[in-house]
Write the structure tokens for this entry.
Amino acid sequence: MNPTPGPGARLVEIPAFDCRHLLELAQIARVAWNGPRGVAVVPVNYTIADGAMWFRTTPYSQLARECGGQWITVEVDGLDLEGGAGWSTVVRGVAEILDGNDVPEHLADFQVWPAGPRPLFVRVEPVELTGRKLLPPPVET
Amino acid sequence: MNPTPGPGARLVEIPAFDCRHLLELAQIARVAWNGPRGVAVVPVNYTIADGAMWFRTTPYSQLARECGGQWITVEVDGLDLEGGAGWSTVVRGVAEILDGNDVPEHLADFQVWPAGPRPLFVRVEPVELTGRKLLPPPVET
């Protein structure tokens, strides 16, 4: 069994306005899509710029091969493992694959953790932006 | 722009044998499936027992309403945000929804972060178990 620190928290929806802010607080998103062998989930570095979420990838990646022009679902979260709480936001939109020469110049600074060239960019303009968080339980009176 | 601490790491596959061990190290999984409104991704507490991955839920949850008998993809990861590295494992299998009265007795101890009764269990026997990790870059000579 894994440890289970949470005393019991309440799950509430996060307004889209606040979800946008939360996206500034993390570095890794999990990109999910319905691929030829079922639903795939891949963690990636991301950045937010010019009204969209951006990833970098290679032409050989599953992301590049399967996602262009497809709907993707992107999950970002922040967990408080000791407190048993956290937030999660989900972005949905259509993935657009762009060559590095075709993206705004300031995106050249966007670095990702894996080594090697990442000549392609994936751009997702959020069509849906939702989130929910676990609040601490109300104080008993 | 989000911080980008990684100096450039190598992405390698993790053997299934090692993925099984990594699943003991985390508390939260992201469950993804192809639902009626596209691919959904929901973070949940999980435990490993009796050859399967288990979640708890309510009858009203999206998970309970959409996943019974369906293939789901479950992602678990461990991130080293300062080092720009990490691992990710993905379990795929068919979600089986069980009443709390029909699960092994020792699973009654499995607590989740959200408050309130969670009378249903979701059981996923891994049909596929894959993973990958980012290794530090090789030392230059």
About this structure: Chain B touches chain A through 52 residues (CB under 8 Å). Chain B has two helices and nine strands.
